[in-house]
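Duplicate of #3305? Posting structure anyway:
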């Protein structure tokens, strides 16, 4: 097993190495989310002996000038091609919200190219086959901003900052355009186990959207819940880390 220091990755793949680790987790942010939002999760995983990576999507942070991708498939290919994932250890994926769908397509691509994925953690994200149920997604500035407020997870004071709001809007619109064109291949499954996780008070994710992840794996499926809303993760970081490590 090699760490990022031994495997060349694009500079926008953030790594948190754990000495002597044989397992690695790749974290996929939510729509509009930057890698920095998952730094604490990645650091906690690395402190528990698992090497963690966070991928950065275009149109934000250190990829601000990178052109937006036009589809989830294209984004997954771009992230997979960012480095030699087959050399970082036993691979698991953790995707939150839209990131769960990106992680699923990443897993499909990895398996096609001979890179084994052991587990996919689908956090507060709907199963790929159910994505059309939420279309069309907001597209105007006013509707996107209202959606961000409803979603939560962003300090309202930051949303009042015009410069921050403008950058966030650009990232969210980019991700929503990619997600709007997403269709899952009928019967698409991965060999990796899928573990869905949701918040008990998440008004954005319908129960069957989590349950339907079972139809996308030929392996094992589990469903867990934590008290909280769409960003339950912020309040249960240690417990989620323990769940991921224990599996």
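Output from current build:
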């Amino acid at each position: 097993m090699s760490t990022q220091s031994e495997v060349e990755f694009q500079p926008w793949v953030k790594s948190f190495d754990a000495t002597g680790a044989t397992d690695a987790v790749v974290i996929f942010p939510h729509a509009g989310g930057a890698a920095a939002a998952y730094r604490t999760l990645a650091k906690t995983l690395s402190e528990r002996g698992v090497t963690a990576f966070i991928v950065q999507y275009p149109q934000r942070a250190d990829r601000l000038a990178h052109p937006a991708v036009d589809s989830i498939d294209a984004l997954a290919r771009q992230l997979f091609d960012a480095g030699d994932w087959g050399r970082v250890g036993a691979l698991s994926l953790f995707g939150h919200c839209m990131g769960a769908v990106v992680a699923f397509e990443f897993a499909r691509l990895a398996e096609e190219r001979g890179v084994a994925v052991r587990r996919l953690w689908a956090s507060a994200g709907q199963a790929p086959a159910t994505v059309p149920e939420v279309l069309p997604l907001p597209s105007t500035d006013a509707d996107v901003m209202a959606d961000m407020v409803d979603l939560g997870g962003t300090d309202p004071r930051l949303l009042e900052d015009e410069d921050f709001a403008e950058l966030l809007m650009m990232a969210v619109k980019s991700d929503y355009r990619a997600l709007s064109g997403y269709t899952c291949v009928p019967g698409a499954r991965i060999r990796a186990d899928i573990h869905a996780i949701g918040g008990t008070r998440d008004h954005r994710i319908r129960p069957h959207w989590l349950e339907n992840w079972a139809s996308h794996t030929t392996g094992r499926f589990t469903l867990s819940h934590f008290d909280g809303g769409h960003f339950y993760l912020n309040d249960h970081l240690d417990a989620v880390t323990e769940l991921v490590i224990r599996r």
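Confirmed duplicate; merging threads. The chain has a mean pLDDT of 94. Residues 14-246 form a domain with the Rossmann fold fold (CATH 3.40.50.1820).
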